[in-house]
Amino acid sequence: MTPFERYRALVKGEPVDHLPRVPILMAYAAHFIGTNYRAFASDYRVLAEANLKCAEHFGFEQLSAISDPYRETQGFGAEIIYPEDGVPHCTAPLLEHDPALDQLKTPDPCTAERMRDRLDAVETMRREGGNIYSVMGWIEGPGAEAADLRGVSNFLVDLMTDEAYAEALMDRCVDTGIAFAIAQLERGADTIGIGDAIASQVSPETYATFLFPREKQMVDAIHEAGGWVRLHICGDTTHLLPWFAQLGCDIIDLDWQVDLAQARRVLGPNQAIVANLDPVKDVMDGTPESIRKALLNAYAIAGNPLLAGAGCEIPPGTPPDNLKALCAPIPWRTAS
Question: Domain 3-326 class?
Answer without folding.
Answer: alpha beta
